[in-house]
């Protein structure tokens, strides 16, 4: 049963196959293929035919023997002629067609080596061949041109029979009897008559045969100059002696041909392809000979199909008797419409743009038809998945440049060379991008190496250089305005300096004692060269601005963009590569260059050209797979996104060790490895390849992240295998911050927690995370974020949009996973504790302590040192912490003494009670920085712990004038119990030389004691001792007086001045010398009475022996009230005092004590004019002063003068006459 069923099925299949073949055959027959031969319905309106008929009809009357149909190549000349022949097949016109197209290529093969004459002879030979081969031999029996005839078996039999009969008849002439015997007629009764009949019959046959043989022999020998004419090979062997024109040489044959044939219209085509005008001359001459020959006896017209540009200028009218122009049916301007119409039924997938482009090169209908035929064949034979645009483009190129098309099959030719140059063009573009990247890297390097990153610092360097050039300058003059070097650093002023071509400067001139103006020819460019001969100022300023504007990050982004462009360029199709190289001159041949430019630059022909010129029989690999495999084996790079099809089959052909090389990197291949566990070794090798940090490996990773299909698994495995990945990303690569954050997101999202932890051990990943503001939202998986935070313990410095991730934020806050900085504290207080942050900048610690944020308070107390460094001290306005908070910080054992000092310096708060501070060193700092309330109890508290003020803290406190002023308002408090401490403290104050004099004066006023001689104050400064004397802190006695007098010259008088009453009361116990008296009598501290008492108690010799004392005393006596003074001292004063007025005043006050003798000495000591008073009859003139009037009056009363008068200007004294 099964066997029968199989037989039935096979029979059915055979029937179906037959039907299919019939249908296919019918379809083929229905396909509209186009013939390339001329058509016979070209002249629809008979315009051209009528013109030809007119010419032919008037060939006699108008002598038209040479007619030309002129038009461009492919214009339809042959079709017009064929149509004309079809429509005029009558006995009147017999057409002989001659076409040289079939001989053109044959002649062209070696035409470059032939001379024009030889080429002409070959053309003539071809014409001659076509004329004579056009008719059978029997039509031209007398022609010397003999052709090889093909004899059929039937003819061969017939000819053989004829020859046998003829030979039999010849044999009969010589041996008739023998013939009869053979014919079995010898002996018959009627043999005589039969023999006679046979004899004469055979004789007739013999003569007929002989006639035929002789005539044939004559004809053969008549063609002695032609050695061989071979029809099958199409060649005529010419006698070597013939070296003249073929047509001329065989003119008789040609005339004979037209004589015996009926041809009267000769149509000659394709003669113009050789560019030989000489042949037309010969043909015209031949036509003339034929028509003038009486032998021919008829008019023969030559019709030529000739290109328009065959003859120059007006020459063609000389060759032809009548010219018919043919308007082309198709040219480059309308071929697009024709091509579109013919293609539409075949395919609707071809773009009109392509047709428009290709039609520019199609100007011949035969070419167009052949393109259509070939396109249909290729379309049916090749894959229907191919681009129809590309297929048509390839067919057009095949038809226009067939030779180059053939070379494509051998990976040769113009198209192939250009496609092969794709890598060269790509390398040019990549090289240009690399140059741009190199420039950007150089710029980054310059910015990273910047030593000066502040514009004012930069300007200071240039100003220092300027001073170095002009060392005596003190300022610069620009536009008649003086600028100090400090002012020059300002923006507007420094810009003015940049434009100076010479420098005007001020310098100090010692002779004039002021600044003078001078000019130096130094230009600012000279200053620039001195500072930096590589970059000028503006360039360096721009570098700093770029640094401040984070240009490095911007440059890195540009580099990343260029690197992406490089990757994209490698995968560009050929057309885009060429479009980027618009100036690339593909070919030297202009026409061919234009076509190739259009086909290649528009992508109609590209790297997959092989699919459009040949079959590919896919087996285990596709063509693309095979090409990739070849590249891998030959270690040639392929684009990462190179399309692979049968990946698993391809993997089997690649050994494991190849996967550690960059040539095997491919996205399709890698996707397959990631999704198929049986290729673990290959995958492992690939990851070893990727972590080698090469540019190619990093580029592949970048590209796969953007284009791969298994990114999650890729990142997971990459992080497991490459433990130093983040170290490379952050420190070794030139990635921008944006790109680093992309990688961070991928690692956090797809890598295992253990891998992330391992990566963090080998890099600064935790630091990067800590600085990432949006870390809590970088991935959507909050549980994984919690695990990462818990494992890595980052200290987040910023958190953006904390409200959106409140749960995570609370997790970070309560787990102390944040950095102690102002922003985080402010955020925590704002969200967790509902605290306003108004005082955070002015009293940060106080605000924290007053908040309800228990976790925050505890976290900061546990990390108080970091808080102080990162927050407290960095807040410029954080100066208003309350006293309680500051004391808490100062008493914190975890803070260093230096930090506590910084806190004290920063804060404005004044500690009320120093005893509340537990650290005596801190107390000293508080005192030194005057951050303690200025009361004696605070100072005594510190002194009580130190018993020494030499550490400088108390002194520093005293040296604050405000402190000293406030302290001076109160005495140092003491009770009996602390008297020793107070006495020691007071003594230390008095004996401290480092207290400023003004402050020393204030604080010593508060000392409640006066110290005896036992206090060793001789080491104190003059001013300090003076202050102690003034503040009466030294007991008044002779010992202190002498000690001061010995060690502090001049202060003994001050000492006496502060104790005048005690001094005068105990005057005998004090030693007063001449200088002392001078100071005392001049002192303003001694009253007039005290001075009078002093004068009365002092030894007069001390006075009279020193002129200065006489002068001082005379001034005092002259201007004081009268007091008891000895006459001796008075006489000394009025005679020896240096000032006359004082002497006159003293005399006038104490004149009663002076007798005549002492008065005379007095007047005599006054000198002229007073001494003339003693001269009789003299009338000296004295100054008009009251004291002189008083003196004159006294002298008159004493009888020393007669009288005195005054004229208002002088006082006239009238001396005695006897």
TrEMBL record:
| Keyword Transmembrane (UniProt) | yes
Keyword Ligase present in the record's keywords: the answer is no
Domain (YobI-like P-loop NTPase): give its ranges: 48-416
Tell me which SUPFAM superfamilies the record gives.
P-loop containing nucleoside triphosphate hydrolases
- List membrane-spanning regions: 156-176, 196-214
User: Keyword set for this entry?
Assistant: Coiled coil, Membrane, Transmembrane, Transmembrane helix
Q: What is one Pfam family matched by this protein?
A: YobI-ATPase
Coiled-coil region list:
423-450, 538-572
Q: Which domain of life is it from?
A: Bacteria
Q: What is this protein called?
A: YobI-like P-loop NTPase domain-containing protein
Which organism is the protein's source?
Flavobacterium sp. WC2429
Phylogenetic classification of the source organism: Bacteria, Pseudomonadati, Bacteroidota, Flavobacteriia, Flavobacteriales
């Amino acid at each position: 049963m099964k066997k029968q069923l199989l037989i039935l099925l096979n029979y059915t299949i055979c029937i179906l196959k037959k039907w299919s073949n019939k249908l296919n055959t019918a379809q083929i027959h229905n396909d509209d293929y186009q013939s390339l031969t001329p058509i016979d319905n070209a002249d629809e309106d008979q315009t051209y035919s009528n013109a030809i008929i007119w010419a032919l009809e008037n060939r006699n009357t108008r002598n038209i023997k040479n007619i030309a149909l002129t038009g461009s190549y492919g214009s339809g000349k042959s079709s017009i002629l064929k149509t004309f022949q079809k429509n005029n097949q009558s006995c009147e016109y017999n057409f002989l067609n001659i076409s040289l197209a079939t001989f053109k290529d044959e002649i062209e093969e070696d035409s470059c080596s032939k001379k024009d004459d030889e080429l002409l002879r070959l053309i003539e030979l071809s014409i001659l061949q076509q004329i004579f081969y056009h008719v059978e031999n029997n039509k031209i029996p007398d022609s010397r041109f003999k052709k090889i005839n093909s004899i059929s078996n039937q003819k061969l039999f017939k000819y053989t029979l004829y020859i046998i009969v003829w030979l039999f008849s010849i044999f009969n002439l010589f041996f008739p009897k023998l013939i009869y015997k053979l014919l079995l007629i010898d002996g018959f009764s009627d043999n005589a008559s039969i023999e006679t009949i046979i004899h004469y019959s055979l004789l007739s046959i013999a003569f007929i045969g002989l006639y035929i043989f002789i005539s044939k022999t004559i004809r053969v020998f008549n063609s002695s100059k032609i050695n061989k004419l071979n029809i099958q090979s199409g060649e005529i062997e010419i006698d070597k002696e013939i070296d003249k024109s073929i047509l001329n040489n065989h003119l008789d044959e040609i005339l004979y041909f037209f004589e015996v044939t009926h041809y009267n219209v000769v149509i000659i085509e394709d003669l113009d392809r050789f560019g030989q005008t000489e042949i037309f001359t010969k043909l015209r001459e031949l036509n003339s000979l034929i028509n003038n020959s009486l032998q021919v006896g008829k008019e023969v017209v030559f019709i030529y199909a000739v290109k328009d540009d065959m003859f120059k200028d007006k020459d063609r009218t000389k060759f032809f008797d009548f010219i018919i122009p043919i308007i082309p049916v198709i040219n480059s301007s309308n071929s697009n419409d024709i091509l579109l119409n013919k293609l539409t039924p075949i395919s609707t997938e071809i773009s009109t743009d392509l047709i428009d482009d290709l039609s520019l090169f199609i100007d011949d209908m035969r070419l167009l038809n052949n393109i259509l035929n070939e396109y249909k064949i290729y379309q049916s034979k090749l894959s229907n998945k191919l681009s129809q645009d590309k297929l048509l483009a390839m067919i057009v190129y095949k038809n226009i440049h067939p030779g180059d098309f053939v070379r494509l099959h051998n990976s040769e030719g113009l198209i192939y060379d250009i496609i092969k140059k794709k890598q060269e063009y790509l390398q040019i573009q990549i090289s240009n991008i690399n140059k741009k990247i190199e420039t950007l890297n150089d710029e980054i390097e310059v910015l990273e190496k910047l030593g000066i990153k502040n514009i004012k610092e930069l300007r200071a360097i240039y100003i220092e250089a300027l001073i170095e050039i002009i060392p005596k300058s003190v300022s610069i003059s620009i536009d008649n305005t003086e600028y100090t070097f400090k002012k020059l650093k300002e923006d507007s002023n420094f810009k003015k300096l940049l434009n100076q071509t010479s420098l005007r400067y001020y310098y100090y001139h010692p002779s004039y004692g002021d600044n003078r103006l001078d000019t130096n020819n130094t230009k600012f460019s000279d200053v620039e060269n001195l500072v930096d001969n590589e970059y000028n100022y503006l360039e360096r300023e721009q570098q700093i601005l770029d640094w401040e504007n984070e240009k490095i990050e911007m440059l890195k982004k540009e580099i990343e963009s260029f690197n992406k462009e490089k990757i994209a360029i490698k995968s560009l199709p050929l057309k885009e590569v060429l479009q980027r190289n618009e100036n690339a001159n593909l070919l030297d041949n202009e026409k061919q260059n234009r076509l190739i430019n259009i086909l290649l630059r528009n992508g109609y022909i590209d790297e997959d050209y092989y699919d459009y010129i040949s079959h590919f029989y896919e087996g285990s690999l596709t063509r693309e797979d095979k090409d990739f495999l070849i590249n891998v084996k030959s270690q040639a790079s392929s684009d990462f996104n190179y399309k692979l099809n049968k990946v698993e089959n391809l993997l089997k052909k690649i050994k494991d060790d190849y996967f550690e090389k960059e040539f095997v990197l491919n996205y399709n291949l890698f996707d397959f490895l990631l999704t198929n566990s049986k290729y673990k070794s290959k995958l492992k090798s690939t990851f070893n390849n990727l972590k080698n940090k090469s540019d190619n490996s990093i580029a592949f990773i970048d590209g796969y992240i953007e284009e791969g299909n298994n990114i999650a698994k890729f990142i997971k495995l990459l992080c497991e295998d490459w433990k130093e990945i983040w170290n490379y990303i952050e420190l070794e690569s030139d990635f921008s911050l944006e790109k680093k954050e992309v990688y961070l997101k991928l690692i956090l999202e797809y890598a295992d927690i253990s891998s992330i932890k391992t990566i963090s051990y080998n890099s600064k990943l935790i630091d990067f995370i800590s600085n990432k503001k949006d870390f809590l939202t970088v991935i959507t998986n909050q549980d994984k974020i919690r695990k990462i935070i818990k494992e890595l313990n980052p200290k987040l410095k910023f958190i953006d949009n904390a409200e959106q991730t409140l749960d995570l934020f609370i997790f970070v806050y309560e787990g102390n996973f944040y950095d102690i900085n102002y922003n985080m504290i402010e955020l925590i207080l704002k969200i967790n504790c509902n605290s306003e942050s108004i005082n955070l900048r002015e009293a940060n610690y106080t605000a924290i302590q007053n908040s309800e944020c228990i976790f925050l308070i505890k976290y900061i107390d546990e990390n108080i040192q970091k808080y102080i460094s990162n927050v407290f001290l960095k807040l410029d306005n954080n100066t208003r912490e309350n006293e309680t908070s500051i004391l808490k910080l100062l008493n914190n054992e975890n803070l260093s003494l230096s930090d506590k000092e910084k806190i004290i310096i920063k804060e404005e708060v004044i500690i009320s009670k120093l005893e509340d501070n537990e650290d005596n060193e801190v107390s000293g700092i508080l005192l030194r920085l005057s951050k303690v309330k200025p009361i004696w109890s605070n100072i005594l508290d510190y002194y009580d712990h130190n018993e020494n003020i030499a550490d400088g803290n108390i002194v520093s406190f005293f040296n604050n004038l405000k402190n000293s002023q406030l302290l001076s308002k109160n005495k140092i408090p003491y009770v009996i119990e602390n008297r020793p401490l107070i006495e020691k403290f007071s003594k230390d104050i008095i004996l401290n030389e480092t207290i400023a004099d003004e402050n020393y004066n204030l604080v010593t006023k508060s000392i409640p004691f006066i110290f005896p001689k036992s206090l060793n104050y001789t080491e104190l400064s003059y001013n300090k001792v003076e202050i102690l004397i003034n503040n009466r802190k030294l007991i008044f006695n002779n010992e202190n007086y002498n000690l001061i007098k010995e060690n502090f010259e001049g202060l003994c008088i001050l000492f006496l001045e502060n104790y005048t009453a005690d001094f005068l009361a105990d005057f005998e116990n004090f030693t007063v010398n001449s200088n002392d008296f001078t100071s005392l009598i001049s002192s303003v501290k001694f009253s007039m009475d005290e001075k009078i008492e002093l004068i009365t108690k002092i030894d007069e010799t001390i006075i009279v022996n020193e002129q200065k004392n006489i002068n001082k005393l005379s001034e005092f006596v002259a201007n004081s009230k009268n007091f008891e003074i000895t006459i001796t001292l008075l006489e000394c004063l009025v005679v020896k005092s240096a000032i006359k007025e004082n002497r006159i005043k003293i005399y006038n006050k104490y004149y009663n004590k002076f007798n005549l003798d002492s008065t005379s000495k007095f007047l005599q000591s006054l000198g002229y004019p007073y001494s003339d008073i003693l001269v009789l009859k003299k009338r000296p003139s004295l100054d008009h002063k009251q004291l002189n009037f008083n003196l004159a009056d006294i002298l008159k009363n004493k009888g020393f003068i007669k009288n005195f008068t005054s004229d208002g200007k002088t006082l006239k004294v009238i001396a005695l006459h006897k």
